[in-house]
Design goal:
single chain; about 240 residues; alpha+beta; Phosphatase 2c, domain 1; 6-stranded antiparallel sheet; 6 helices
Length: about 240
């Protein structure tokens, strides 16, 4: 199977690229014939420190182990890795306080194999499966009103995940056909997509037309008309051929 994948991202309006707290994998444009393809996105919570590092660790893990049970088993080691990487000597007291709170993120991963695909998610980053001019599947949220200010978040501290692990949800054995498209989006863009779909305005046509040179303009326009709230934005577009 041939997979063409490309990632588009922007920080909040008014922020620098260094302040972007989402994460994604693959890091480069992908165009290959493969038997297995994996990609993932994560949305680090702005209210907590070191969330960008946590989000990056999550997407890297998902693209090595895209299995819900194994992912949960590997979480303790991933949490230790996060702590080791962010716990620096001579850290000021206010940074230490935030370190002890931990980092939080949503996460979404996609695995495509011959004829089938698998999804794992926690929180409100979403995947949309498009076939021609039809929305075949959306996951894990299906309606724009499901978005709110308190999504389920995965913590870098095990004690903060009590009651959360069961919210890591997945689907496997889903069917796809040659020519299908998959769009992975963090919450702000995903909410816009579902709102536009509910208005029958075919948002996938706009996503399909995006090129690296016009993504910034596309997002700025949506923000200017209040169709998109000001947040970090990440889009992974996957096309099967």
């Amino acid at each position: 199977m041939q997979i063409v994948a490309e990632t588009f991202w922007l920080p909040k309006h008014g922020n620098t690229p260094a302040e972007y707290e989402d994460a994604f994998f693959q890091k480069k444009k992908f165009n290959q014939d493969v038997e297995l393809f994996r990609t993932a996105i994560a949305d680090g919570a702005t209210e907590t420190s070191f969330s960008k590092k946590w989000a990056n660790l999550l997407v890297q893990k998902c693209c090595v182990v895209n299995d819900k049970k194994q992912f949960i088993q590997d979480l303790p080691e991933l949490q230790k890795q996060w702590y080791a990487e962010v716990n620096q000597k001579d850290m000021p007291w206010y940074a230490l306080e935030k370190l002890y709170i931990g980092a939080y993120a949503t996460m979404l991963s996609l695995e495509i194999q011959e004829n089938t695909y698998k999804i794992i998610a926690i929180g409100d980053s979403c995947l949309f499966h498009i076939r021609g001019e039809q929305l075949e599947n959306c996951f894990p949220l299906t309606h724009s009103e499901q978005f709110n200010d308190r999504p389920v978040l995965l913590s870098s501290y095990a004690n903060n995940n009590e009651g959360i692990i069961e919210n890591i949800i997945g689907k496997s054995g889903l069917k796809w056909k040659k020519g299908d498209e998959f769009y992975l989006m963090t919450d702000a863009l995903a909410c816009w997509f579902l709102e536009a779909n509910e208005k029958k305005s075919r948002p996938w046509a706009k996503i399909r037309a995006i090129k690296p040179g016009n993504f910034k303009h596309f997002i700025a326009k949506l923000r200017s008309i209040k169709a998109l709230r000001n947040d970090d934005v990440t889009l992974v577009r996957v096309i099967t051929k």
